[in-house]
Every structure is written in C-alpha cells, then in structure tokens.
Amino acid sequence: MATVWSGCSTSCGSFGQEPPLRGKRGGEGARFRPRNGRRSRDVSRQVQAPSPTIVAARTRVCRAAPCVLESEVAGKEETDMGVWGLDGDPPVADGFDGRKRHGLRRRTVRPPAVVKKGEVGARSAPPAVASESERISEHVGGSRLHFLEERDEETLSKRLIKLSQSNKVRSATELFDSMRASGLQPSAHACNSLLACFVRRSSLADAMTVFEFMRGKGMATGHSYTLILKVVASTEGYVSALQMFNEIEEEEGSKEILDVIVYNTMISACGKAKDWRQAEKLWRRLGDNSLSATLMTYDLLVSTFVQCGQSELAIAAYQEMLRHGLDPSEDIMKAIIASCTKEGNWEFALATLSRMLSAGMKPNLILFNSMINSLGKAGQDELAFRMYHLLTKSGLKPDQYTWSALLSALYRSGRCWDALEFFQGIKAKHPSVLNSHLYNIALMSCERLGQWEHALQLLWMMEKSGLKISAVSYNHVIRSCEVACKPKVALKVYRRMTRQCCSPDTFTHLSVIRACIWGSLWNEVEDILEEVAPDSSIYNTVIHGLCLRGKIGLANKVYTKMRSIGLVPDGKTRSFMLQHVAMD
Fold first, then answer.
1. What is the pLDDT of residues 5-42, one digit of tens each?
2. Is residue 447 packed enough to be buried (19+ CB in 10 Å), middle (13-18) or exposed (0-12)?
3. Burial of 385 by CB count in 10 Å (0-12 exposed, 13-18 middle, 19+ buried)?
C-alpha cells in the first residue's frame, strides 16, 4: 500500500487548512448550498477543491489521530464526505444531526471530477507541488504514514493506548509508524499496549517489530518480555520460547528486568507441554536469581508436577509455599491430595484435607472418595468410615465409588463378615448402586471365609439382576468351593460357566483342577487337561497334586505328555519326578 502523507490537522478541533477565498463559479471552488436546496445570497461560502496530491478520490477521517485516511473499499465513488463532530455524535445522511451542532459540521461536497494527468497543474496545483508529494509518498512496512500536527508525545501515546485497547490494529500501527517517522517516541506503556494487541491477534511478526524497537530504545520492561514470550510459545512452540528466554537471560542487565511474572509465563508454557523437567529447572533458577515465587508460581508448579505424576516434586513445591507463609489455594490442595492418595501417602493427604476444612473450604465428592479409597488400601478402615461420616455431614450423597471404597476397606482389614453385612445393607437401602464390582468384593469375602453357599447365592442374584458375570466372578465362587472342599460343586460351577459362553482363564482351570484333585475326581482332571490349551503352569499343578496324593503312575503319564508337547517343567515338578523315580 502506498504511503500517503496527509495534509490534514491532527488537532481535535478542526482541519489544518484555511477556508479558501470565494472564487469564480465553476472554477476552483464550489458554492455551498443550504439544506433547503436554495442558493444562499448573503453568506455564500466556497469549499476549495481537494488537491489530487493530498486527498484521493475517496477519503474518510481517522478519529484516532484525525487525519485523512484512504478508504478500505475501492472501486466505488462516494458523493459525500462527512466529518464527525468533536463530541462523537454520528451525523445522519443529510449532514444534520437533529440537535445542537458541536464543532465541525458535515457538509455535502460535490464528487471530485475526473481530471486527466495533463490538467492537474492547471486546475489544482503546480507541477512542482505534485512531484514533491510523489517524492514524499513511500512504503514504510506496508503501513501508511500521516502528517502529525500534534507533536506532544504524551498525547499521541494516549491515543495509541486507546487504539490498541480497542483492538484497532490498523490505525494503531499507522499511528505508531507515523510517530517513529516523525522522530517522536511512544511511551513504554503505549508500546506494551500495541504489543499486547498483536499478541491477542497472534501476529508474531508485528509483535517482534515492536519488541525490537523497544529493546533498541531501552524501553523493554518485564511485561514486554512476558508478552513476546507468550506469543512465541503460542505460535512457534514452547521450545522456541525457551530458547529465546535463555538468550535473554544471558544478556547483561537482564536480571534487573526479568521478574517473576516472566518466569511464570515460561513455567506455564512448559506445563502445557508436560515438560516437568524444564519447569523444575525454571523453578530452581528463580531462586538462584533471588526472586520470590508467588502463589501463581506454586499453583503452576504443583499442577504441572501432579499431571506428570511427580508427586514428590509437587509435595516439595507445596511445602516450600507453606514455609514462605503463602496460603495455598483450593485447587493446589486438591491436587496435592489427589497426588498423595494415588501414591499411597495417606497421612500427608489427611493433613492437607484437615487444612482445607480449617480454612473453610468444602471438599467435593471426588476428593472424599479418593481419601476413603486411600485409607482403605492402607487398612485404615476406621478412618475411612470417619471420612464417610464427614462426607454425609457435608451434605454430599455417596455414590458407587464411595460404597466400593468402604467395602474394600473392610475386606482389606480382614473384616470379611462385616463386609458381607455391609453389602447386605447397601443392597437393602441402595439397590440401584449395586454393580459387578460390589458383588465381586462380597464374593472375595466369601472366598476368604469359605462361604460357598453364600457365594452361590450372590452369583444367582447377579444373574437375576441381569448383570454381566465375568470370569473373575466365577473364579471367586469356584475358589470358595475349593476352600470349603466342595469339588463337585466347583465342577458344576465350572460347567455352568462354559455353558454361559464365559471363557475360563488360567486361574479358573487351576482352581477347579485343585478342587478335583483333592476330591479324588481323577477322570475329571484328565478331561479338563484335554479341554485346556497347553500351559506349563496347569500341567505343573496337576503333577504336584497327583504326587502329593500318591498317584505316581498318573503323574508320570501327565509328565510324559507334558514333555511330548514341548512344555518345560519347573524345578518342583522335576524334584517330584526324580524323587519317585529313585524310589522305584
């Protein structure tokens, strides 16, 4: 776009051109016609025709730094040119605002006549003026330059700030370039506002131009570095931003400019990329440069470390924050509790939860469930139920995860009978929350107690409720029969499992084979071996059981078959076979 040096005034009151003298009709000017269409006899005024070297065929007035700007739409002619009043009142089509006029009024102007190149000097200006204007007009970075009548840098800087805050990028850029071309220097605040405008538009090239200008003038502040690093990270990636940050940090005098907000920006960029190592390095360098981390710094660090599974670093950042006398936010404490419960550090999680409650914060249901689950895994069933009562007092309703965590806490603590009673209470009061996981925990309790009848009852209840029964559930029932020395019942459950199109796994075969061996069901053992795929663990278990029960001949038969199909016996199987061969 060609550069235009406009001859208009940048003052807020009027144009810089003086009204011309009354000329001949049809000559250099045009008579002003009143709105009623009649020609004025006494107060006729003429408007000087615009010079082709100053005003183009179509123009508009820039309100930011009042100057004549080229229209954004080309190819059409405009018959009128409007001037806005100083108070910002928009004019109507005929130029009358319907109220008291303020400042300049909108006047209708005849469209400029199309003049040939040879007639320019005769009708508007001498050829010397035209050539001078053509000489001044030039390209400056794709932005138009304007003649600035206003020479006060503070006033122009305030206008640049308003344009940037309003996201009027084009006008702000033209004003910025015009000030530089006129030898005027915008303030640091104005440059930062323009830089922030470019950052919002993710315009890296324009942002770098403003940033380099500020660095060259020694105007760059910590906010400037924050903005440029932010746009570099968003457009070119955090690696480029980190490289730029390292170069800036090595410059002389950079430590006086780089503040903690700049470091927070880089920690945030590394956290979004899940690069916890770089975030940790920035955290250490922050302390090496004698800068105190803020609450936002620790929030970013804890969030990054927790998301990357670095619970120790997250706890270290949290503890450092407490040592510096900062009160952690609710999000930080939630993240710490989630990380501690995941790693099994229930004591630190419980202390953090107590701090939350002391600060008047209300943990959510997910937080309570994670605490109950962590306490249950640690065998702290009493603390788990205290947490449950605290949950209900907070006005929260337990869900499936709550009941599962409590039931698991009883089972892990060895309170299997209490677990079965608690399951019955859940079934009676909250039947809608029952799922396969809750049934499996109850079946695990039956397995440990050898309650095969109760296990069969639970299996029948699962089938009746329409739940999909997995191999894990059948395994718990078969194992309950094995513990209770009910091999025939275990074999029936196994047959029903296969009829229900549920594929047995290795644990199923091991359990039912052990039950049949101790029940002296030798034929059934051989039938199961014919059904299963070759597996060393199954054959080793069969040989161990047969040897212990004194069935040496059958054990030799199974061992021979095992070697013939290429399976490798374990050390215990070889020991058994060598022992019985030596005895023979």
1. 443 334 443 333 334 443 434 444 433 344 444 443 34
2. buried
3. middle
Distance, in Å, from the CA atom of 35 to the CA atom of 460, rounded to the nearest integer, reads 96
What DSSP character marks residue 70? E
- Would you give the DSSP letter of residue 254? G
CA pseudo-torsion sign 260, 266, 269, 273: negative
Query: 426: helix, coil or strand?
Result: helix
Decide if pLDDT at 353 tops 60: yes
Tokens representing residue 197 in the block? 């405008």
Phi and psi based region of residue 45 (left: phi greater than 0; alpha: psi -120 to 50; beta: remaining): beta
Q: Which residues, 6 or more positions from 291, have their beta carbon under 8 angstroms from its beta carbon?
A: 259, 260, 263
Place of tokens 């739940």: 467
Beta carbons of 210 and 229 less than 8 angstroms apart: no
Buried b (16+ CB within 10 A) or exposed e, 459-470: beebeeeeeebe
Using CA atoms, how far apart are residues 146 and 3, in angstroms rounded to an integer?
Answer: 8
pTM higher than the cut 0.85: no
| Residues 95-105: tens digit of each pLDDT | 444 444 444 34
pLDDT at 568 over 80: yes
H-assigned helices in 450-551:
452-465, 471-483, 487-499, 506-518, 522-531, 536-548
Residue whose structure tokens are 């469209």: 111
Q: Where are the alpha helices (DSSP H) in 359-394?
A: 365-377, 381-393
C-alpha 53/C-alpha 127 separation (Å) is: 10
Q: How far is CA 113 from CA 30, 49, 69, 127, in A?
A: 12, 10, 20, 18
Determine which of 56-65, 258-267, 324-333, 521-530 has the lowest per-residue pLDDT on average: 56-65
Q: What percent of the chain has pLDDT over 90?
A: 57
Q: pLDDT (tens digit, 9 = 90+) per residue, 381-408?
A: 999 999 999 999 999 999 999 999 999 9
At which residue do the structure tokens 């030799």 appear? 556
Q: DSSP code of 80?
A: -
Alpha helices in 125-187 (DSSP H): 127-136, 153-165, 169-181
* CA dihedral sign, ordered 293, 294, 295, 297: negative
Q: Enter the DSSP assignment of 31.
A: E
Single out the residue of 434, 362, 369 nearest to residue 398, CA to CA: 369
pLDDT at 61: 38
Q: What are 157's two structure tokens?
A: 């800087």
Number of H helices, E strands in the chain: 27, 4
